[in-house]
Task: inverse folding
């Protein structure tokens, strides 16, 4: 496998990134966490870059809406945790006579909202939102835990949210899985993992697996059932692979991080790969090939240092895979292109 890196934009304190489609063409959307920060739209083929908006900034999430040329965003969540006036917005995207037209409207206010996701169930679309906390008097004040909210999303109506669960401290990461015939949502917090299913009503269960920051799923032991990959600790120092067993979970593999902030796992060219990213220490973004087994093995295939990625988005094709990275540590948007061929290590 050959891996080529290209810097496709400079963006001060870029935090959020997503792959979006407009008129069937793929773009990278990237936004800054800065106050009055910019959001960019980058054509991944031509690398032409246009501004979607300037301000208000503080963007934590960019979530494309299925069957709409629109993106939902968390805005006004500024560093560090200055987010009591955070909002969720919808921006419709279109090109007219070669120029980008972006129409944004606010869907709702939700203080300290940190992650959002969409659930498609029964012909309806639901938005799930997680609050990092309920309030902060100062940066390290975690005395008022956050909550998980959900509500039906309709593009032409205000968003009305209902609380699904209260009492999640340092409620950081969210992962949505649609591979099992239904939709499952996983939210990480100091109390563990909150598991949510939409089965007519919302079904909620807290798994006590230790403080969890970010989450993804992958079958790492080859038994046909997915394990849960987590960054343990808030912005923690470990990726751990948790296997569910009778009575709880056990760890079957571990990788190091420093201020861990990126976690992804999935198939690339027929093999399982895992991506981990750190915003501390060497600020590295690492790609591992996973050897499935009861005790899975990890081969470091590629390592980039200094980037301090806050988020990534992965576009997978048959012969080409692109990793889009919000390289927060270098105020840049990077694109890593993976193609079948010789392996290039770094």
Result:
């Amino acid at each position: 496998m050959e891996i080529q890196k290209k810097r496709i934009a400079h963006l001060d304190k870029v935090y959020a990134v997503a792959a979006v489609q407009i008129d069937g063409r793929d773009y990278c959307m990237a936004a800054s966490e800065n106050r009055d920060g910019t959001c960019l739209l980058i054509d991944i083929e031509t690398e032409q870059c246009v501004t979607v908006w300037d301000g208000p900034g503080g963007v934590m999430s960019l979530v494309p809406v299925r069957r709409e040329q629109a993106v939902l965003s968390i805005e006004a969540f500024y560093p560090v945790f200055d987010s009591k006036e955070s909002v969720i917005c919808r921006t419709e995207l279109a090109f007219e006579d070669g120029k980008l037209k972006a129409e944004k409207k606010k869907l709702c206010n939700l203080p300290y909202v940190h992650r959002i996701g969409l659930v498609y169930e029964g012909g309806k679309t639901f938005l799930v939102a997680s609050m990092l906390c309920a309030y902060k008097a100062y940066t390290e004040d975690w005395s008022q835990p956050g909550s998980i909210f959900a509500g039906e999303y309709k593009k032409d109506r205000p968003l009305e949210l209902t609380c699904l669960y209260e009492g999640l401290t340092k409620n950081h990461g969210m992962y949505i899985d649609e591979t099992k015939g239904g939709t499952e949502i996983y939210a990480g917090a100091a109390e563990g993992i909150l598991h949510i299913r939409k089965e007519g009503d919302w079904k909620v269960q807290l798994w006590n697996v230790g403080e969890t920051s970010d989450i993804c799923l992958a079958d790492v032991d080859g038994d046909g059932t997915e394990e849960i990959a987590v960054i343990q600790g808030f912005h923690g120092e470990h990726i751990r692979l948790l296997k569910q067993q009778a009575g709880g979970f056990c760890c079957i593999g571990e990788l190091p991080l420093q201020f861990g902030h990126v976690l992804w796992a999935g198939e690339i060219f027929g093999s399982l790969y895992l991506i981990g990213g750190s915003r501390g220490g060497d600020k590295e973004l690492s790609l591992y090939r996973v050897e499935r087994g009861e005790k899975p093995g990890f081969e470091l295939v590629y390592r980039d240092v200094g980037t301090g990625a806050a988020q990534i988005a992965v576009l997978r094709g048959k012969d080409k895979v692109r990793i889009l990275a919000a390289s927060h540590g270098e105020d840049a948007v990077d694109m890593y292109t993976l193609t079948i061929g010789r392996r290039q290590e770094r």
